[in-house]
Specification:
The protein contains two helices and no strands. The protein is mainly alpha-helical.
Length: about 80
C-alpha cells in the first residue's frame, strides 16, 4: 500500500484549489441560470464600446503593417539620370 507524503498532500490541495478557482465561476453562472435570475447585460456597458473601438483601431494598424511588409522594398540606389539623345 502507498503511504501519503507531504508532497502528495500538497499536490491534492493544489488540484482542489485549481478546480475551485476554475469551476467555481462556472458553477455560479449555471446556478444563476437554473434559478432564473436575470443575467447582467454587458453589451450596454460603455467600456465595451470603448474596447470595440480600440480593437478596431488595432486591426487597422495591423492591416497597415501587413501591407507595409508585403510591399516590395524600395530600390537601394536611385536610377541613373537619362538625358534625351
Amino acid at each position: 500500500m502507498h503511504s501519503f507524503s507531504p508532497f502528495d498532500l500538497f499536490g491534492l490541495v493544489a488540484v482542489c484549489w485549481v478546480f475551485v478557482k476554475v469551476l467555481g465561476p462556472v458553477a455560479a453562472s449555471v446556478a444563476k441560470r437554473i434559478e432564473g435570475r436575470p443575467q447582467q447585460n454587458v453589451a450596454d456597458d460603455p467600456a465595451v464600446y470603448q474596447m470595440q473601438r480600440d480593437v478596431e483601431e488595432l486591426q487597422e494598424r495591423v492591416d497597415f503593417l501587413e501591407r507595409t511588409l508585403a510591399a516590395p522594398p524600395p530600390p537601394r540606389e536611385l536610377p541613373e539620370r537619362r538625358t534625351p539623345v
